[in-house]
Amino acid sequence: MASPFRQGLLHFPILNPTVSPYHFPKQLHAPPPDPPLRARIYKPLAPQLSRKLDRQQHEARVEHWKWKWKRNGLKIERGTKLLKDLSTWGIGGPCDYFVQVFNRTQLVSAVRCGKSSKLSKFFLAGKLCDVIVSFKGCRFCQENEIPFIIIGNGSNCLFDDSGFRGCVILNRIEFLERIEPGIYRVGSGFGFNRLGLQCSNEGFTGLEFAGGIPGTVGGAVYMNAGANGQETADVVDSVNILTTEYKLQRYRRNELNFGYRYSACQDMNDLAAIVEATFRLQSSGSARTRQLEYLERRKLSQPIREKSAGSVFRNPPDDGVSAAKLIEEAGLKGLRVGGAMVSKIHANFFINAGGSTSQDMLDLIDLVKGQVRRKFDIELQEEISYIQPCNF
Ligand SMILES: NC(=O)C1=CN([C@@H]2O[C@H](COP(=O)(O)OP(=O)(O)OC[C@H]3O[C@@H](n4cnc5c(N)ncnc54)[C@H](OP(=O)(O)O)[C@@H]3O)[C@@H](O)[C@H]2O)C=CC1
Ligand SMILES: C=C(O[C@H]1[C@H](O)[C@@H](CO)O[C@H](OP(=O)(O)OP(=O)(O)OC[C@H]2O[C@@H](n3ccc(=O)[nH]c3=O)[C@H](O)[C@@H]2O)[C@@H]1NC(C)=O)C(=O)O
Q: Where's the FAD-binding PCMH-type domain (predicted)?
């Protein structure tokens, strides 16, 4: 069964053969009304915790978390972080909780369901409260049943204007270690662009295409990012993931079942986050030159100065047909819904041309799919992920 803790993110059901891959489910357009705040946050964990908390207790508990999180070097932002600031599309309302993690320990703290915890009575703000105390670290998402998502650079996400009723964990695990010449162990929050530039500069081939890609290493592994005939899977040696049971597991490349924009991570029910990846590259004298050519081509063919999320649709499986070509031939370049527009430079890039709402973008995606379907009888499949505001 899928973990309840990663329920906030709705992936387009491309890989599930039992669901039609070709439609945005209707409810995406009309998200369910938010449940009351307390119900959201204090979904009872166990009978002992199920008594209702009044506003004062609620605030006291939040204060308690803040204290713990400060001690662990983490800072929770509550209700203030706007997702539009975390997304390259510049779209999205506030999330209930926001936290940045800079290392593995902090990541574990953010998602863990502390086994070292015990139930205690605590006096907070003059009131007796039930709290779970963990002395080895603080815990947030799981013990409080708050759904969470992990994001890297938000370059492949469409957030909703009403935000996200859970915790957004921003991955800033950014280390890079050179194990041997051509072998790099990299934190999943490390910039994919930066990694690509570094490897090519150091004379190794395989990640030239990563130059100019705005995502993180975690996002690139998760999606098996690719361009110019290269893809992430070609150079991945192994990947370490954190499970929802907060165990670290190592997967070798052949266990990750990579495909076009696919890795087995997308179907792991117990995946909490990709923590780090090891890449194995071959030496090459021409890597940097090739990369500069790719970067130049990208500058000319993509709207790199606009707010976009890269390609909105995957290329159809038939060789030689590209989503961009189909959209252009359907005469849809420049098509606009509110502030969302099909780029005039690259038809598979939809840009926030100013004040686009998430609904504008969803409507534009729907419209383009419909037109391409009518004209070519081809169903385009989304590459981007839409994050549902609330799923419980
Ligand atoms: N070729 C190009 O020009 C472009 C390519 N891209 C690609 O899109 C991807 C986006 O990367 P990025 O901006 O960092 O991702 P995002 O922050 O946009 O996250 C997208 C989704 O990827 C998953 N994800 C990201 N990081 C992790 C992690 N550490 N562990 C587990 N899952 C993770 C999350 O899914 P969940 O919530 O299920 O965990 C998340 O919702 C990259 O592959 C990037 O290369 C993007 C734009 C342009
Ligand atoms: C941008 C992304 O990755 C990109 C990656 O940068 C490029 C370059 O290798 O190749 C893929 O795009 P793409 O298939 O659209 O590649 P392009 O070379 O730009 O275009 C393919 C074909 O479409 C035509 N084309 C392109 C743009 C356009 O507006 N109209 C058009 O007709 C081009 O002439 C070309 O014949 C990746 N997209 C996908 C979905 O696979 C991304 O993943 O977000």
A: 115-284
The answer to whether residue 27 scores a pLDDT higher than 70 is no
Structure tokens at 43: 């979904």
SS3 state of residue 158: strand
DSSP 27: G
Instruction: Identify the residue whose C-alpha is closest to ligand 2 atom 32.
Output: 325
Evaluate if residue 43 carries a pLDDT over 70.
no
Q: Which ligand is nearest to the CA of 385?
A: 1
Helices then strands (H, E): number in the chain?
8, 21
Query: From atom 38 of ligand 2, which residue's Cα is the shortest distance away?
Result: 311
Q: Tell me whether 0.90 is exceeded by the ipTM.
A: yes
Q: Assign 338 a pLDDT band (cuts: 50, 70, 90).
A: very high
Closest ligand 2 atom to 228 CA? 9
Note the pTM of the prediction, 2 decimals: 0.81
- Ligand 1 pocket test, candidate residues 7, 11, 151, 243, most atoms within 8 A of CB: 151
Domains of the chain (ranges, CATH numbers)? 4-171 (3.30.43.10), 176-288 (3.30.465.10), 307-387 (3.90.78.10)
Q: Please state the atom number of ligand 1 nearest to the C-alpha of residue 192.
A: 45
